[in-house]
Write a structure and sequence with these properties.
Rossmann fold, SAM-dependent_MTases_sf, Spermidine synthase, polyamine biosynthesis
């Protein structure tokens, strides 16, 4: 059932629908732009969003709470809510549409801003060029789609280079791409131009076709036994299906 619509003369209308126990965010179309389990609002409902947390495989769990997560494109706020409430991280969101923020506050349990979280209403392409952000982000999540959801809104080598400049030495970018679309290979080529091919890892597409690609600021190649041990720890600590990830998550080069 539709619960809220907020039209805008310039940006797509934002609406919310409930499907049993799950609430969905829409931007002017039936496409699902984010989801939340109503009785567990800080869990990660969608499979591809869970995979956006694969950067945890490359960081010491005891250091996570001291890290800074940045999300470009708020959606339903799932990544920021998980990082803030479950991982206890400092979180920043850059979102263009104030209506999306308002709906997330009202319907998706997005916590109020404070010392450990803030939403910046801005164009992500311009905001991340600001020197104040450079070298400050440990986990950067990029999920920037418009209401047509056909291809990423920001998807140039220059944009990915700006993303790389945000990261700390062991920081990671995770980006949601459509793995079954022709734009996927072009996006990977642009990521490789910005980060280097040896810095890239990718999942196989989900059933819906989402492919999460991870880029490291400093490329590493942990041994499989090390990744498995880390995945088992993540699964036990934060209830993420991390051991299953390793069956479908590989270096690109």
């Amino acid at each position: 059932m539709s619960r809220k619509k907020t039209p805008s003369p310039e940006l797509p209308e934002v609406s919310v629908s409930d499907d049993g126990e799950v609430r969905h965010l829409h931007l002017g179309t039936p496409w699902i732009q984010g989801s939340m389990r109503i009785d567990d609002p800080f869990a990660l409902e969608l499979e591809y969003v869970q995979r956006m947390m694969a950067w945890l495989l490359f960081m010491e769990p005891s250091s996570v709470a001291r890290r800074h997560a940045m999300q470009l494109g708020l959606g339903a706020g799932a990544i920021t809510k998980f990082c803030r409430k479950k991982l206890r991280m400092c979180c920043t969101v850059v979102e263009l549409n104030p209506r999306v923020e308002a709906v997330c506050r009202a319907w998706f349990k997005l916590p109020p801003d404070g010392p450990m979280q803030r939403v910046v209403l801005a164009d992500a392409a311009a905001e991340i060029k600001k020197p104040e952000w450079h070298g400050t982000v440990d986990a950067l999540a990029v999920d920037l789609y418009d209401h047509e959801a056909a291809a990423p809104v920001l998807d140039s080598a220059e944009f990915y280079a700006d993303c790389r400049a945000l990261l700390t030495g062991d920081g990671c970018l995770t980006v949601n791409l459509f793995g079954r679309a022709s734009s996927y290979e072009r996006s990977v080529a642009k990521l490789a131009e910005a980060f280097g091919a040896d810095a890239l890892w990718a999942f196989k597409p989900t059933r819906e076709g989402n492919t999460v690609v991870l880029a490291q600021r400093t490329p590493t190649r942990p041994k499989r036994a090390e990744l498995l041990a880390r995945a088992e720890g993540l699964q036990a600590r934060w209830d993420l299906p991390a051991t299953k990830w390793l069956r479908v998550f590989k270096p690109i080069a």
